Amino acid sequence: MKVGFVNIFGKPNAGKSTLLNALLGEKLAIISPKVQTTRHRIKGILTDTNYQVVLSDTPGIIEPKYKLQEKMMQGVKSALEDADVALLLVDVKDDWQENDQLFASLSLAVPCIVVINKLDTVGPKQLEEARQFFAARQYCRSVLTVSALSGINKKNFLKPILELLPEGEPFFEEDQLTDLNTRFFVGELIREKIFQLFEEEIPYHTTVLVTSYKEQENITRITADIIVQRETQKAILIGKGGQMIRQLGILSRADIEKFIDGKVYLELFVKVRPKWRDNDLFLREYGYF
């Protein structure tokens, strides 16, 4: 049985989360047109009769500016260290030279496959030029071209990856999809809606902490705190007459009900924690350690 860790690396907004979701056939990683949506390393487990592939979506690689981003990059570092195969994801319309420099700087000791994403946004000539550009790089074992958003032929996509994986015993149970719990994904779905509804700084200054998750016979009761850094941000999140927090609750509840396949009662509270992104105690409490 082919078994191993296949970790996805790339710049912010290359489509790493969309690729993970497409391969799993399930929405595990939240997505947004805004950059730096992913903060945690999210593992998705693909198991079949002859393989178990543990896929990791990692935060987009950036130069950290505060402690939260430092923790995000530590997650990337751990993924670099335990990968059996690295998928180096690049948006075909992004700067190829910049991506090349980034990939080379990772100094990966494992086989690397460059995945050129968003192939449906360029013509055949430009796509072939991109393929040849990355195929010539020393770190590149092979090149795959995909449109993660439009859908992936999983069998064809996995074939060159499985050839590079070692044989072994599976790490996880056959029906296990991820190593993270439901509370984590509930918090992420709420955070995704914050990215959807709010502009500018708000999504980047916000985190979500699920404080209560109680499964009852006909309903799951969930309470979550939305953490911001300033009172002005709290006012924006709540909105005039509570309009924005209600809308956030409605959208979040709909997605959570889909995710857990059951009825949900959701309560949201907004709390101010000044400079939480640079505070080790808060970062630990909010699950970033």
- What is the H-and-E element order? EHEEHEHEHEHHEEHHEH
Please state roughly what percent of the residues sit in beta strands, choosing from under 5%, 5-15%, 15-25%, 25-35%, 35-45% or over 45%: 15-25%
Low-confidence stretches: none
Q: What gap, in angstroms, lies between the N and C termini?
A: 33 Å
Shape summary: globular
Average predicted local confidence, pLDDT: 93
Outline the biggest β-sheet: 6 strands, mixed
Q: Can you count the helices? A: 9
Number of strands: 9
Question: What is the radius of gyration computed over CA atoms, rounded to a whole number of angstroms?
Answer: 20 Å
State the helicity in percent bands: 25-40%
Going across the major beta sheet, what is the strand order?
Answer: 2-3-1-4-5-6
Helix/strand class: alpha/beta
What does this structure look like?
The structure is a single chain. By secondary structure, the chain is an alpha/beta fold. It has helices at 16-24, 67-82, 96-105, 124-135, 154-164, 182-197, 231-238, 243-260, 280-285, and strands at 2-10, 42-48, 51-57, 85-91, 112-117, 140-145, 207-215, 220-228, 264-272. The strands form two sheets. Strands 2-3-1-4-5-6 form a six-stranded mixed beta sheet, sandwiched between helices. The protein has a three-stranded mixed beta sheet with strand order 7-8-9. The protein is globular.
Produce a short descriptive summary.
By secondary structure, the chain is an alpha/beta fold.
